[in-house]
Amino acid sequence: MIQSDGLMFQSKMSIGQKLLHLHWLFVVLLVLTACIGFAMLYSAAGGNFEPWASRQMVRFGIGLFAMIVVALTDIRLWLRYAYAFYFIMLVMLVAVEVAGFVGMGAQRWISFGIFNVQPSEFMKAALVIALARYFHGGSIEDVGRVTYLFPPILMVAAPAVLILRQPDLGTTLMIGLASLAMFFAAGVRMWKFGVLGVLGLISAPVAWFTLLRDYQKQRILTFINPESDTLGSGYHIIQSKIALGSGGLFGKGFMLGTQSHLNFLPEKQTDFIFTMLAEELGLVGGLVLISLYVLLLVYGLAISLSSRNHFGRLVGIGVTVTFFLYIFINIAMVMGLIPVVGVPLPLVSYGGTAMLTILFGFGLLLCVHIHRDVTIGRRDGGDEM
Amino acid sequence: MHRDSERHKLFSRRALMLGAGQGVLMSALVGRMYYLQVIEAERYKTLADENRINFRLLAPPRGPIVDRVGAAMADNQQNYRVVIVPEQAGDVERTLSLLSLIVPLSAGERRRILREVKRKRAFVPITVRENLDWSDVARIEVNTPDLPGVLIDVGQSRHYTFGPETAHVLGYVAAVSEKELTGDPLLELPGFRIGKAGVERVYDMALRGAGGSSQVEVNALGRVIRELDRQEGQPGAEVRLTVDLQLQRFVMDRLGDESAAAVVVDVNTGEVLSLVSTPSFDPNDFNTGLSQAEWESLVSNPKSPLTNKAIAGQYAPGSTFKMAVALAGLEKGVITSDTHVFCNGKIKLGNSTFHCWKHGGHGSVDLQTSLEQSCDVFFYEVARRTGIERIGAMARRLGLGASLGLDLPGEKSGLVPSNKWKKKAIGSSWQLGETLIAGIGQGYILTTPLQLAIMTARLANGGRAVTPRMTKDVVTEDGVTPYPPTQYDSLGLIPDHLALVLGGMERVVNSPHGTAFRSRIKENTQRMAGKTGTVQVRRITKAERETRVLKNSELPWKERDHAIFVGFAPLDKPRFAVSIVVEHGGGGSSTAAPIARDILEEVQRLVPLAANTSDREA
To answer: Which residues of A touch B30 (CB under 8 A)?
Structure first.
């Protein structure tokens, strides 16, 4: 009955109808956010579209198209191929381990001739879908059982360990935290998170000595006391705070950020672009961008809540939390609230893979929105269809 | 289905909790932003300015030094040096190899350059070689396309127009040593030079000027993006000396290869017109740095070229001290113009015999004749009657025995002995025989050529306590102001006594029996007066005296007598005083007097009286 309802729904909606149902306000908000990014990249290049702004616009255009394609795809298709997608990404992660080349001191990219892929970025989306599918299939009692949680924990642990080995602390952290949020939303008992917390505290020293690389340890140590190393890792944090703080309420003016333009700011076009924005446009400019992000997050949460199928809800919350983590980790880092971790500012930082991941994620979110009224049975894995 | 709706409710609750958590964390970000950008904004604005603005010190050009008529003695010259910018050079070693085809570089120099390349940032130019001559500069410029990163840089270096001629007056400049750092950042500038001797040292602060500053915007690597503000420093002040450069060169030339000193002063103003010590050295070499061998040869030279003998050479004045003895005796009243002493060539005192320079003696002589012929016996007698304390007091009034406060470093005080001094320094009491020896300017007494010139000036100007100075203006750190007219105090000499002594000095040169008659100036308006001195530096043994006293030409250089002459001109209206000391030069009359005559003739030609009336009134 439910299944036929879904089928009916699918057959009822044409591409044009789906386009009408697209959450256009959400699209407008993210385009606005991306435009702020273009402006900052234009400024970062000293008033030039080259080398960053123009390429970012092209990527955004491609990403936007991909996003809409993803959004219009039937949600059950994603459900059906969730595990397949996950395994492809896992294989690619292993491939990076074997054949990937080292970029920026870390092994993250895999070369496909003309373009390089960062499988760890796509893994974020793949894991969200896979976990959503897993929990979609479980009843409230299932979720209560400890043994039921072993497969999803393994699903998270496998890519997390691979990515940490690359080493990419930021992505590992995001995958871990986003997965936790999904476990939480799926209804895993509170006390289990308590146990996890205790286990985490116990294993932290072990991880310190076995898993973390020297530079990662250094970053954590530097975070604790940035002034101890003013020319090393702490330099980035201090310079970033100086640039940001000196921006004041209204900023120094667009393209007039002295610290950023004089290269005191490291990676101003990527990870530290928020600092540059805050320096040039001040607290006001920063708040405008944060407000846009908050609106996107609120709509993301609303989409997730309004879905009538559990898969959609979980995908929605997974995407929203991931998006939030990007924003929070990046901004908190440039303001010296957390250690330096390489996480870009979504839609604004220069970079192709992150942009694609985020727009792909938003594609899924919009897909959930379009298909919010589709009901999918707990056992409807989509495989049977 | 019921369970599914329960699952839905649980999800909604949990999702809202997640949303709330996100809201809290986002608020934390906003709070942090507010803290950094509003509360702490001022602090970070200051830090940001410090971050991007560098102050660079600009070395002020060192003030020039000119002579009394404005002729350049020391100025700054462009110093071409070749530098290499590693960033532009790419392969530094290869570029250096190419460069060494034009400017040969030793292996050591190359190592130094490569070491600096490693130590400094890639855009900082590194000096390869300084003081290039023009042909090297041209050859490098022509080959620029093949020498990436090689640039010609122009700096300023001190240049002395007549190095050796003015070395002992001007001194020299050299790099700042560790000990001389005072915290003044100027001193820490690479290549900054400070005065180490002479006028360069005394007036270093005025010559140095004040450093300018340039505010430049730099990026995180320290590379200059642009200049924001520039404050030109205050160039060093021009210091005008009392020295006449032409006279200085003449005197230097006239002293030739001798180890000698000469001082010419204005008897009224104390202006030092010439101050020469030979042999000399070239201070230009000190600027670029001396090789070990060059330094050794300067230090080991027996004629000590590095010592300014005019102010730091201390010599017994010999017979030139007789004026002081005479004045002391006249003032005490133990002699008059009529006092006669019979000179038979020697005088006995107890067991000792004191000889006159003239073996057979002068016969009966009065004061003026004794000065004219430099009779020693007469002055032994005057000294015996006057006593060392009176003689010493007169000598000090005339400017001997204490530093005159000339504005040059290293002035020695000389020595005018007394009973008290001897007890303290040697530990025994004064002997009468020592007074006799002092009467002819030998023994313990020591004077510098400068003191002898001032003594002569004080006699020639009618007994006024003139003191020497090197500059036309009062030079302080703040600037240069002309000297106020100075009227020097009277020494309280009785005019008749002074006239008597000056008359004796006139006869020394202008009487046919005078010891310096051969060196007289015949031009009536320029005639000079003076006194010869011949200072024995060895002990003449009794045996030698009984046979025959050896002539100077028969002795090794180091044992020959010092030749001394003091004099002034013109006779009628004295204006210039001169002192000459020629170490181991032989006799005062044969060696020193002709030099003094030539110098006094030259100074009267170069510094005409009429043009300097204002000086005279000063």
So the answer is: 287, 290
